[in-house]
Amino acid sequence: MYKTKRKRGVVLTSTGIKRLQSAIRSVEIVENKGKHLSLEEISSRINVSSRTLSKLWSLSESVDQKTIKLCFSAFNLELHSGDYTIPNKANETETSDLLSIANIEEDSSQPSELTSFIEEHHTQTKQIENLWSYPDGPVPLDSHFYIERPPLEKKVYREITTNGCVIRIRSPKQMGKSSFVLRLCAFAQKLGYQTVNLNCCQLERECLTDLNKLLRCLCWKIATGLGIDANLKEKWNEEIGYNLSSGFYLENYLLELCQNPVVLVLNEVDRFFEYPKICQEFFVLLRSWCEEARHNPNWQKLRLVMVYSTEEYISMDINLSPFNIGLPIRLNDFTQPQVEDLARRYRLDSFKAKDFAQLMSLVGGHPALIQISFYHICSQEMTLQEIIEDAVANGGIYRYHLRRHWIKLQENPRLAKVYAEILAGKQDISFNLIDTYKLEGLGLIRFEGDRVLPRYGLYQSYFAKQLLTVV
Question: In this structure, what DSSP letter does residue 269 have?
Answer without folding.
Answer: G
